[in-house]
Amino acid sequence: YETKDTDILAAFRVTPQPGVPPEEAGAAVAAESSTGTWTTVWTDGLTSLDRYKGRCYDIEPVPGEESQFIAYVAYPLDLFEEGSVTNMFTS
């Protein structure tokens, strides 16, 4: 994914479970902090998730820390309520 000027960018420190590739862990963080959920939600069919989902666009190892990574996630600006700092911090 190539970031856009309108994306909100964030970095998360992740420690994948044993056997889980770092890219999969980064994608899970992006999904869970934007449109993802562990259960089926009937409203998912009402809107395009591609428009609102977070995307892990890069992941790199944390220097000196085994099995820890920084996952870089891009969120579309439309995901956030205008003027809501709380909305951004809870992603």
From TrEMBL:
GO terms for biological process: photorespiration; reductive pentose-phosphate cycle. It is an enzyme of class 4 (lyase). SUPFAM superfamilies: RuBisCO, large subunit, small (N-terminal) domain. It is found in: Plastid, Chloroplast. GO terms for molecular function: monooxygenase activity; ribulose-bisphosphate carboxylase activity. It catalyses: D-ribulose 1,5-bisphosphate + O2 = 2-phosphoglycolate + (2R)-3-phosphoglycerate + 2 H(+); 2 (2R)-3-phosphoglycerate + 2 H(+) = D-ribulose 1,5-bisphosphate + CO2 + H2O. The gene is rbcL. Keywords: Calvin cycle, Carbon dioxide fixation, Chloroplast, Lyase, Monooxygenase, Oxidoreductase, Photorespiration, Photosynthesis, Plastid. Belongs to the RuBisCO large chain family. Type I subfamily. InterPro entries: RuBisCO, RuBisCO_lsu_fd_N, RuBisCO_lsu_N_sf. This is Ribulose bisphosphate carboxylase large chain. The keyword Chloroplast applies. One of its GO terms (cellular component) is chloroplast. The keyword Cytoplasm does not apply.
